[in-house]
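Good morning,

Both structures are done.
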Amino acid sequence: MTAEAEERWLAIVAHATRPFFRYARFAGRASRDEFHWFLLAALLVLAAGYALDWLILGSSAWTKPDFFRLASFALLAPPTLAVTVRRLRDIAATSPTSPRFPKG
C-alpha cells in the first residue's frame, strides 16, 4: 500500500469514528465526509447486529427485537443524532423553517 493510500484510509477511519468520541457534542459542525463515512459505518454495525442475531440467537430480522440489534441501536443512536445535528448546522439548516433545511 502506498503512503498516499494509507493516508486516505486513515482519514476515512478517522471520519467514521469521530462521532463516537463526540456523541454528546451538539455544538459545532460536521463535515460532509464525517457525516457520510459515519453513516456507512453505522449501517455496517447495524447489519452486523442483525447477522449476529440471526446466526447466534436464531431469530429472523422480522421477529421480536433481540440482544444484538438492540445493543447496536443503543450504541449508534446518540452519535447519529449528534452528527446529524452538527451536519445540519454545517449546511446552515438551523430549523425546519430554514430555507436550506432538507425537504423530505
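Second structure follows.
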Amino acid sequence: MLQENKQAKREKLLLLIVRKRNEMIRLANSNGLLSNETIRCSQELDLLLNKFQLKE
C-alpha cells in the first residue's frame, strides 16, 4: 500500500512536469526565450525536476 502511494505521488509529479514544460514552451514561443515569464517558468520546471530526482 505504501509503495502504491509513492508511485501515485511520482506519477502526479511527472504530470506536473509535463504540464510545466508545455507551459514553458508556449511562453517561449509567444514571448521569447529571455522573457521574465519564460525564465520564471523554466525555474519552476527546474524545481519540479529536482524534486523528481530526489524521489528516485
